[in-house]
């Protein structure tokens, strides 16, 4: 942003359905588009974004995080989906883990996916083998967990009525 005091629209890329989340990696925007799955948009030229890839998801795509050529998508009642996006124009499913609740948000740190999972709280999933993710721990929240962010040794979870919970996720 050249002038943070006066931001302005450079372009608009109209998606097809209910857009929920975006993350950017290299020259691509990865968009979780609800029932529209995961869309990959080339943003090398911000004035002319172009969709270059798409993959359907088994349920409602609510949140996406991208690390090392893999997209991790929180897909509601179907949990976590792992998608290879090394070739952005040809994304494909790699693995998945069905969480017990409603996965609404995901954040990646090192070899772990932290998933806010509705009534099932925070789920910690080992993603070191992307084809076979598995749960290593969980943390029960007092209400519905909606979103999660991770930094260092802590996961920050927000929910409907409880506000912000800071969870120590160190070894």
Describe the secondary structure blueprint for this structure:
Layout (H helix, E strand, L loop, with lengths): L20 E5 L2 E5 L5 E5 L7 E6 L7 E5 L2 E5 L5 E5 L7 E6 L7 E5 L2 E5 L5 E5 L7 E6 L5 E7 L2 E6 L3 E6 L3
Antiparallel strand pairs: 1-2, 2-3, 3-4, 5-6, 6-7, 7-8, 9-10, 10-11, 11-12, 13-14, 14-15
In words, what does this structure look like?
This protein has 171 residues and is an all-beta fold. Helices cover 0% and strands 48% of the residues. It contains no helices and 15 strands. The strands form four sheets. It has a four-stranded antiparallel β-sheet, with no helix packed on it. A hairpin with a 2-residue loop joins strand 5 and strand 6. The protein starts with 20 loop residues before the first strand and ends with a strand. The model has no long low-confidence stretch (mean pLDDT 93).
